[in-house]
Amino acid sequence: MSVIKVAILGFGTVGEGFYRTIQSHSEELTAVLGRKVEVAAVLVKNKQKERNISKDVFITTEFTDILNLPQVDVVVEAIVDKDPTYSFLKQAIQRGCHIITANKEMFAHYGQELLELAKVHNVSVGYEATVAGGIPVIQTLRQLLNVNRVQQIHGILNGTSNFILTEMREKKLSFADALRAAQENGYAEADPTNDVEGFDAFYKAMILSRLAFGEDPNWHDVDRKGITSITSDLIDIALQFGLRFKHIASIKKKGNQLIASVKPVLVGKEHPLYHVEGVQNAVNIYSDIVGQITLQGPGAGMYPTASAVIEDLVYVCQNRRANQGFTSAIESCSIVEKSQEEETWLIKGLLNTLNEQPINVIDQVEEGIWIVKATSEEVAQLTKLNQELVCFPIIGEFESEHDLAKLVV
Ligand SMILES: NC(=O)c1ccc[n+]([C@@H]2O[C@H](COP(=O)([O-])OP(=O)(O)OC[C@H]3O[C@@H](n4cnc5c(N)ncnc54)[C@H](OP(=O)(O)O)[C@@H]3O)[C@@H](O)[C@H]2O)c1
Questions:
Q1: pLDDT digits (tens, 9 = 90+) for 322-334
Q2: Residue 406 catalytic?
Q3: For 160-174, 322-336, 383-397, which range has the lowest pLDDT when averaged over its residues?
Q4: Domains, the chain, ranges and CATH?
Q5: In this structure, which residue's CA is closest to atom 7 in ligand 1?
């Protein structure tokens, strides 16, 4: 029986999880691929570290050693940072290897180049683990929604932020205490900037956008905000309206324009993302034939991520290259445009100092806290006039408990 030889770049949480899963699921892999899978080599930074790797596996710190092996069919990349990773993967493709990556930052920057190069060299690219860990969102978009036109995606793509927001609400913790709890539980890095400032979710959103819409928006036009401005006070106000703060990546098409944001959003009880708590991730996809689909699951961790990588291994070994991304222009969609026209917002601040612009207030619990219907342009205008206003969009049904509809302040 011929053998599929794999090289693993990086032997941290993801690399080691993948290695262990190849051993624990070798029978299933052989059955589905008709060939045995063997790890030929592992690339690491520090060769002196103790690792649980079989003596038959070649361990190196030099990527050229991997390229010079007599047989490598698949290169699995689980390193950090975009460089030199991009250069490694380019060389692997040029050598005729299929590639799999878990590295969202690298893939958000260079994914398109790698996909194009892979086409030229007739190899496949797997990147399931770059978005939402163990949730098979890439494969769902790539394989199951070929004819559907995706119109909108909402995702909770960063488990650390979701954990912090959940802890703040449930345990009445401050942001700083909830962050500390995330660090103590191993959910947040010592430097949590990438997670709590929304960069991690931003990269994932750009990868999703390219797959679902055939392009990503101009990165500078994306409204990217983290969760550092969310206070216990704001969380309590939201609760009075039955709303929960979630850090949401949102991508939708308006006419020929892609609109994307990654920011704190208030979610109503009826929305599928309302109940996504702790380190869980979820992706809510709205497409024209099927309607709404929500995928939820573990967004990180050794085995959830290994699951994504091992399923990619099957995908690339079958050299399934169809539909690397939707390239057809998607017509504007009335549903998306309508929601874009008018959204529901929670606004904190003194609206009545800004009488120039009539705003449709639909609820108010106390002076200075409002629920309004407005377009994002109108809200942008309001915040320009009064920079102390704090505004959050609301997704999901919101039912007013007070009879203030159509009130104009
Ligand atoms: N952790 C998760 O749950 C998760 C989930 C989805 C995606 N990802 C992504 O997967 C990637 C890996 O994450 P991780 O958590 O496994 O990281 P990690 O635990 O920090 O491990 C990184 C590994 O890469 C090696 N490495 C770093 N720079 C290298 C270089 N220049 N050359 C060779 N080896 C190098 C390190 O070698 P040494 O061991 O010698 O230091 C280490 O083995 C990241 O891009 C991350 O964003 C992670």
A1: 444 444 434 434 4
A2: no
A3: 322-336
A4: 3-126 (3.40.50.720), 137-297+321-331 (3.30.360.10), 342-408 (3.30.70)
A5: 102
